[in-house]
Design brief:
Layout (H helix, E strand, L loop, with lengths): L11 H4 L28 H16 L7 H23 L4 H46 L1
Length: 140
């Protein structure tokens, strides 16, 4: 079975609807997107990285290109590279692993909250016991 994209990776044109209105960037492959389940395209990450370099070079000459466009292009390239790299690291679904980590962290946070409640209850019992001891001493 061929490897597929686990999530959708939108095109820069989808991320920034104003981008196709800038004539000089229409040849920068800004319409390329990947749907969840599409077969992995080995050239997609490299192409996205090249687009970042081209947009960075154009940034000074084209005032309509903003830092947000450049950052969005970088992030998109990073996402594609991470998806492609995850295939080479080994079997397993990185997103599933991250979800497991998040669930474990949520469980730990609940345990910490429960432990705090228990500690507060124990502290209240200790204070009651200290008060009773003080009363006993006063009575004697």
């Amino acid at each position: 079975m061929a490897a597929t994209y686990p999530i959708a990776v939108p095109s820069l044109a989808d991320m920034f609807p104003e981008l196709p209105q800038i004539p000089v960037v229409t040849n920068c492959r800004i319409d390329e997107s990947k749907a969840a389940g599409d077969p992995i395209d080995e050239d997609a990450a490299r192409s996205a990285e090249q687009t970042v370099h081209v947009l960075q070079a154009l940034r000074r000459a084209v005032p309509e290109l903003t830092d947000a466009h450049i950052e969005g292009a970088k992030n998109r390239a990073h996402v594609l590279r991470a998806i492609h790299a995850s295939r080479g690291v080994g079997p397993g679904d990185i997103l599933a692993t991250l979800n497991d980590i998040r669930r474990n962290m949520d469980d730990m946070q609940r345990n910490v909250a429960d432990n705090r409640t228990t500690l507060e209850q124990i502290q209240a019992i200790v204070q009651e016991n200290q008060a009773m001891l003080a009363n006993i001493r006063l009575a004697n």
